[in-house]
Design a protein that fits this description.
- 11% of the residues lie in helices and 38% in strands.
- The protein is mainly β.
- The protein folds into 5 domains: 2-251 and 420-459, no CATH class; 257-402, Glucose Oxidase, domain 1 (3-Layer(bba) Sandwich), CATH 3.50.30; 491-699, Hypothetical Protein Tm1070, Chain: A (Sandwich), CATH 2.60.290; 710-819, Hypothetical Protein Tm1070, Chain: A (Sandwich), CATH 2.60.290; 825-929, Jelly Rolls.
- The strands form 11 sheets. An 8-stranded mixed sheet has the order 16-15-22-18-19-20-21-17, with helices on both faces. Strands 23, 24, 25, 26, 27, 28, 29 and 30 form an 8-stranded antiparallel sheet that branches. Strands 40, 41, 42, 43, 44, 45, 46 and 47 form an 8-stranded antiparallel sheet that branches.
- It is globular.
Length: 931
Amino acid sequence: MKTHLLRAALALALGAAALPLAAAEFQIVVTDVAGAGFNDPTPATPVGGNTGTTIGAQRFVVFQEAARIWGALLPSNVTIKVNSSFSALACSSNTAILGSAGATTAFANFQNAPVTGTYYNKPEADKLAGTYLGSNSASIVAQFNSELGKTGCLTGTFFYLGLDNNHGSNVNLLTVLLHEFAHGLGFTSAANSSGKFLGAGANIFPGIYDRFLYDTTAGKTWDQMATDADRVTSGTNTGNLVWNGPNATLYAKAYNGGKAILTVAVPAAVAGVYAVGTADFGPPAASVSVTAPVVGALDAADAAGGLETDACSTITNSSALSGRIALVDRGTCTFVVKAKNVQNAGAVGMIVVDNVAQGVAGMGGTDATVTIPSVRITLANGTKLKANLPSSATIGADPLVLAGTDASGRLLMYAPNPYEGGSSVSHFDTSAFPNLLMEPNISADLPIATDATLPFMRDIGWFEGSTALPTTWVLPSSAHAQGANGAFYKTDLTVLNAGAVPANLVLKFLGHDADGRAGVEVTRVVQAGQTVTFTDVLASIFGVATGFGAIRINADTNNLKIVSQTSTPPPSGVGTFGQAVPAATGNDFATTAAAKALFSLRQDAAFRTNAVIANATEAAAHVDLALFSASGAQIGGGTADLQPLEMRQIDGVVTNLGGPDGTKDAFLVVSTPTADARIATYAAVIDKSTNDPRTILPATLGTLGTNGAWVLPSSAHDQGANNAFYTTDLTIGNAGTAAATVTLKFLGHDQDGSSGAEVIKTIPANSVATYTDVLGSVFGVSSGYGAILVTSNSTNLKVLSQTSTPPPDLVGTFGQSVPAAGAADFVTLAAPKTLVGLRNDLSFRTNVVIANATNQAGQANLALISEGGGVLWSSSLNLRPYEMHQVSYLDMPTGFANATLVVSTTTGGARIATYAAIIDQKTNDPRTVLP
């Protein structure tokens, strides 16, 4: 069954880009006539990595690059054909239709459809069916304006045809294409402006997209709404229409920054926090903190009937505005004009009062000369504020509330009132910060990336279906082998199937320092809801007598949680020392777009560090390694040309790459210039006396988003069981280009942490600070433990810890590394978390840490699930603001292994950090299990 879809037109007004509306192989099918569009022979100079020498050739290169990016990210064995052309579209000197793109058809109730009675856009439907549905004709049609920038067609603003994002004031065609291809791939509602779904008669169905559109006021998704009128109402329910997909929600919690707010301090009659709409021009309101008196701006009424308070002409009370935040009315001119006029009068910020009763809305426009932040408030709030001037206010961000999301961290959808045809519903809301690809406006500061759009594709089913290419994980290292200083390491591999159907696995041992494609493969099945642990996986599954290397796990589902534990007997031979290492997948890999860094590396008399790099693809890849000291100076480096699926361990990585012996707190940057490469990496910092390894997992470098606030769930300067004494070293890496001001707040445990001690530190740019025994040295704690809240003016921090104790013989140390939890790591109403491979028996005990990351009370619900899927134990915790609580092994039942703890919350707006420590009963060595 199929139906035709209307394609959204892409329009651009002067100063504002408005979009009214596994490799998968894309085929760009040129439909232009000779001499036009892609066949335009006009000579062009190569630009920004585009080597084309004619306008037509350069256009084709950009389309190919957009297809390459999406093709590398999505799985399909059906070629996605895109009929593409350039032609003269409607435009004027200050407005233009940029183009249109979208799916040609949609299908429902086809073979392998994950959800019946649901339309899927043709590219996804073909992929799920494993063949062309209907015909092998084009899946997407894309048409763009060949006249853009010419006289009379948005004069002077052209499509930028480079691939490097250096578009200046022009329109980056590559970013626009990534956006528009996404609409064709499924980012669009199947309901029209009247709320009616696609189809006719008995074949009227929602789209898969509509099953994730959730109205928080109605408490229903769009497919659950009884009438078309209900959907019309929801489509203008500003701030209350959200994307209810778990994958995009999880991404937003890692990517989105603090929500822009307006905080009014005085007078008391208007004091409080105000919701705001943000501007596309000037510095993002969420990235600044501007505090000043609020003064109403006055100007001469303009001929178009403007007000004396709309800042549409030269300001007449400049002396009153200088150094103040200007309050202006929405009126007859653009928002950019208002901002420029009050800025010229000396204002340090602008508040625009809406002139219609509606929710908060954003402000479009571009002007690189606007340097002050601007926000927009509702008519009701503006009326109240105007009646109580002068006042004092701050334009800034709430670091614990994510921009562009609801209280549960779900992405807001664009639902302005009145409805905007082509833009409403089928885009993310404009309040997100940083800006997202699928907002209705293509912002000038967007990177060339798919951001939340890729996990959105996972939500709507792009990675499901029997014909999907396998989902891939790579465990960077496993062992059944002798180690240094008499150690013998063995690896247990644990796989949880959190899905509703059996998971078919193909495990492939890749070995090390060799092409891994010929590695041994075995198949296994993990039943739905069950956990399987392959003890000593190399010996028991692959028959390895001695060896080490990476393991690739392919599956027909993405609902797996995979973690390993590698351990060795200590020198005494009693008990074990070890570490837990999760398998890498998705955004864990270093790619051309995302370098990875390993922090807190060490090579001296007490510790050695080994680093692992593993090629997760079946193509050769080049890897660059750069080693830096804590001060940010490069002290070493190297390269590696990895064969397909090759794993390589770099022993003594600090000195191996040229760093001096005696180095502490170094960091290693792992990057690759190889297109489509996926490099897994991690490091093990190993105590030379005990052989105990501590896992250092990779952190993403680059401007990929912000984590807002971080919570280290646990730190200690305290006595432990069996005469252990634990201390915690806290490491903060500032990957930014400016010094970071960091506030450390010790929250303690089993109490309201709001009044905890605070200490402010400054960390220079591109450097690392380690606070040894942080509780003792920074907070003066003589005996205690608890969580630490880390907040900063920087969005480029990497925060981790190492907690250790001397062993009973006091020779060396053993311990664990625990990264601080950022926004993506928190348990929320929309995103429960799982801790895999827990154990309480004669050999091991497990403690679980639960920490409330907000200043509001919240409930944490715990459910311990056996390896067979049954519930072993459950509990609920009522957490006070900023409270940390350790769930002891004594609180849980005994006699279990390979269990999973599900941590969830029923509290809206809750942010709960969690992790588990699996502790050897003989040695007291803890292994970190992350959610």
